[in-house]
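In this supplementary section we document a worked example of the pipeline. Step one takes a protein sequence of length 274 as its only input; no multiple sequence alignment statistics are reported here. Step two produces a three-dimensional model, which step three serialises into structure tokens for compact storage. The input and output of this example are shown verbatim.
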Amino acid sequence: DGEWDIAVATMWSTLKNVIEYPKIKKRCYLVQNYETDFYQIGDPLRRKANETYAVVSSINYLTISKWCQNWLKKEFGQECKYVPNGIEYNQFYNNHNERKFDRKKKIRILIEGDCGSYYKNVDESFKIINELDKDKYEIWYMSYNAEPKDWYHIDRFFHKIPHGEVSEIYKKCDILIKTSVLESFSYPPLEMIATGGMVLVLPNDGNLEYLKDRENCIMYNRGDIQEAVKLIEEISENSELRHSLYIKGIETARKRDWKNIEKRVKEVYIGGRV
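The serialised model returned by step three reads:
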């Protein structure tokens, strides 16, 4: 029986409730990804997700990614307001301690992602790992949902880590490998560079929002395992490259601090200049 000033659908499956509940003054739909592609071709949920982008009603469409804003306009004619995503910068800030790659110690690589979701493409990360010198690299894997597959080479596995503890794992690792093919906004690379770490990514619409190759990260082409291996070796050996990536990475993460974005968030939800 409650009455709400604002109600926000945050996944396609929640929009129906926001539309049908009668006592809402302002209805919003925060489109965080092209969720149709969460499902394989042939799955009826693809159509159901797609239908939510074509709603003609008093729904205020919002998004955290410019690429989502673009396809909503182009494919569905929706005027969607954009507000950038942010990070709790101080939670990940590492006192600006630049990583020192000690040749006497193993370089620690972190892989993050749910290997049970095909679009996270975690298998490709471990195909890269399989080509690396195991005497030179130590491999950590962090997944909230799925357990690692039998063929993965892992030195340490982190499962269902509370968000408040994730930053400490990033701070203890040197390089993050992130190989997702679909992301609305890819948080792990941003979190890693906020701690001063290095990032190797497969470019997608969600990380191109803030990542630039050889400025604040290193990018490789999907499926090119040998290219990825060579780039990891380059990061490991080239201290000048690491320093440059570190400086730009910290700068990028600082700009994404919620303190720099919260005004825009309030404007979008409760009015004022947009």
